[in-house]
Amino acid sequence: MAKIRLEIKWAMIFVATSLLWMVLEKLVGLHSTHIDKQMYLTNLFAIPAITVYVLALIDKKTKAYNGHMSYKQGFVSGMIITLLVAAISPLTQWIISTIITPEYFPNVIAYSVKIGYHNSLAEAEAYFNLQNYMIQSVVGALIIGFITTAIVAMFIKTKKSNL
After folding, report:
1. d(CA 46, CA 44)
2. Residue-by-residue DSSP string for 44-109
3. CA 87 – CA 126 distance, rounded (Å)
4. Cβ atoms of residues 86 and 78 within 8 Å
């Protein structure tokens, strides 16, 4: 447990960042009044998400590896964070959907049927529900976390010196 203390810390920071982002989305009306813009603007979460990974790997490089970290070390650290975030994501999604913004599913269901994205209420309800979003959150965390880790580790690794 002590070996992954930093990864646990940064996974919790990532989860907190995700929850705060959802609060922000709700406050600006992306889950109600401006739901038509939500599917586009929610992608801006990539900025704080990538920032958390960058700061996490810099922290790991500094504290665990005395400023010298290989790509493999950074990748492993990032993947541990990713696995932790993915493991916690169903709980995170439950908090979002039941506490932060319980009106999101009814609103997005109605909107998706209204604009013809889904042909029926039943079709929309089959897609926009807590169980489906929990599954999507795990899969999404794993895929996006893997890609983010692979790229961020390239930039954070210690560069070889020609000296």
Report:
1. 5
2. GGHHHHHHHHHHHHHHHHHHHSTT---HHHHHHHHHHHHHHHHHHHHHHHHHIIIII-TTHHHHHH
3. 23
4. no
How many residues make up the chain in this entry? 163
Q: What is the pLDDT of residues 93-108, one digit of tens each?
A: 999 999 999 999 999 9
**CA geometry: angle at 99 spanning 93 and 105, to 5°?**
65
CA-CA-CA-CA torsion for 110, 112, 114, 117, nearest 10 degrees?
A: -160
Structure tokens at 58: 């810099």
Residue 132 parent element (H or E): helix 130-156
pLDDT at 49: 97
Q: How many CB atoms lie within 10 A of CB 35?
A: 18
d(CA 54, CA 28): 27
Domain boundaries, the chain: 2-156
